[in-house]
Amino acid sequence: MTKSEVKIIIGNIIHCPQKLKIELLENGFVVVQGKQITAIGDSATFQHQLTLLQAQGNQIETIHLKQSQILIPGFVDTHIHAPQYPNAGLGYDKTLLDWLNCYTFNLERRYRDLNLAENVFDAVVKKTINHGTTTACYFACLFTEASIVLVDSVIKYGQRALVGKVNMTKSSCRDYVETEEESLENTIKFIDNVVSRNNPLVQPIITPRFALSADIEHMTELGYIAKNNNLSIQTHISENLDEVRLVKEEFGLSYANVYDKSNLLTDKTVLAHGIYLSDEELRLIAAKGSSISHCPESNTCLKSGLCDVKRLLEFGVKVGLGTDVSGGPSPSICKAMRSALDTSVCLSFSKENYEPLIYTDVFYLATLGGAEALNLDDKVGNFTVGKEFDALIVDMNVENPQIDCFLECTPMEILQKFVYCGDDRNVVSVFVAGKNVK
Ligand SMILES: Nc1nc2[nH]cnc2c(=O)[nH]1
Ligand SMILES: [Zn+2]
């Protein structure tokens, strides 16, 4: 690290030091050297830090936040399908299984065309960064070449990401399916390619689509690949009642037990949705250290159901937020926070003594919760010394905003307004591993 790489961001800083805990550093500071956070503090300790850094001969870049701005950790999208981006906003006349058959497989099979792949994947990565997603956990598609194009886009724009080549040996679509041999061989090829890029921000993730697109033997082989290469795993679980019934009929087991039998439940597994999990399944998932990606917009657009996040957390399951594009129409984790609040309020109408989530809870899910869910909380998720600097400068007083701000807000009010009324216009700067990417 050269001495000239020191940045100090000075102003109002908000993050979650631990699960569901929020901290405001009023007139605080964060020191970033290279990609790492090396100090954080309040106004009382600032001068001491500055003197120390100056005495070390560092060239210091200072960024002073305005009163209308806050510094927050970057957002983590724990579940997004990059190739489905062209279908965002389409197909919500269907529910999950018909939607997959009518819209989704028909789009994903077109990614044999690598020009389409490059155009769409560049757009998705740029768009999600623009909305403040510093880390994304992507489903790519069945094709190895196109999945590598997604890795290219992620590297080009400097996002942190897990990227998975999708595996599926059973499908309603004749030209969007693979044999088990192809699936395993291409998964290894894909992993080798990503590893050979030697980019510390990008890792491959093992991606069986869902229980209905594979058999236990195939999923078990994928579990072995994950174990042998120390990789994360992502899939879908318990999203829709018809799907849950078919899984039970086909395997004679609960959904979580199907994955457990396939060795897919590890402490590096992220399961999307998880709406209809029984207590027993949740105990199993918590014991295995697997996590749930809560995708509230998708759950309502596809009419899958309302996921009770508080229940997941009470069982000790790690939870993050996912956009699930294009099951959900928006690439914005800010929008996912709002949807998570809406879902929780809707649940409170039919449950006695149920306190719905509040804006600070969904802020936790969008930041540290997401990092925990993806097993990246040793690197990102909040402003802890030693972690990498993934952060957003949010400004609620920009030109042409969705809503105008008339009165001066406190830092916590700025966060609250951003959660309820913000969008990409309010995300004025984005940093990934210390690098300014917006
Ligand atoms: N939301 C969603 N659920 C799925 N289950 C299996 N595949 C998918 C998918 O692409 N999106
Ligand atoms: Zn999904």
TrEMBL record:
Domain Amidohydrolase-related, first and last residues per copy: 70-437
Cofactor: Zn(2+)
An example Gene Ontology molecular-function term: guanine deaminase activity
Recorded catalytic activity of this chain's protein: guanine + H2O + H(+) = xanthine + NH4(+)
Enzyme class at the top of the EC tree: hydrolase
InterPro entries tied to this protein: Amidohydro-rel, Guanine_deaminase, Metal-dep_hydrolase_composite, Metal_Hydrolase, Metallo-dep_hydrolases
Keywords: Hydrolase, Metal-binding, Zinc
This protein's pathway: Purine metabolism; guanine degradation; xanthine from guanine: step 1/1
Pfam families: Amidohydro_1 (PF01979)
Enzyme Commission numbers on file: 3.5.4.3
Cellular compartments per GO CC: cytosol
Textual note on the cofactor: Binds 1 zinc ion per subunit.
Gene Ontology BP terms: guanine catabolic process
Record family assignment: Belongs to the metallo-dependent hydrolases superfamily. ATZ/TRZ family.
Role this protein plays: Catalyzes the hydrolytic deamination of guanine, producing xanthine and ammonia.
Annotated protein name in UniProt: Guanine deaminase
Organism: Ceutorhynchus assimilis
Source taxonomy: Eukaryota, Metazoa, Ecdysozoa, Arthropoda, Hexapoda
